[in-house]
Amino acid sequence: MTAGTDRVIVTEEDLSTVIQCQTDASIHVQKLQASHKTLQDRLDMLDDARLRNNIKIRGIAKSIDDRAPPLPPKATLGKLASQ
Asked: pLDDT value at position 72?
């Protein structure tokens, strides 16, 4: 059994279509990369804001703790609980 060879005729129009598809795909990839960069920048900004808010929250909690009266000793807490 011999292997036959199929011939494929490629026209200039076919080549033009392939080149146009490659160009379109390249443009699409560039747009996706730009969108990814924008989203990554926004995520970084949100992460920075989250860290700043955590620091603010810790500062507020420390301020509240500093103003709160001290807790009674554990022995006193036991007596209060039994009453």
From this structure: 66
Per-residue model confidence as pLDDT tens digits over 27-74:
999 999 999 999 999 999 999 999 999 999 988 888 887 887 777 666
Residues 6+ apart with CB under 8 A from 72: 80
pTM for the full model?
0.53
**What is the Rg, in whole angstroms, of the alpha carbon atoms belonging to the chain?**
35
* Dihedral-angle region of residue 54 (phi above 0 means left; psi in -120 to 50 means alpha; beta otherwise): alpha
Taking residue 38's Cβ as centre, other Cβ atoms within 10 Å add up to 10
Helix ranges (H only) for 4-73 are 12-67
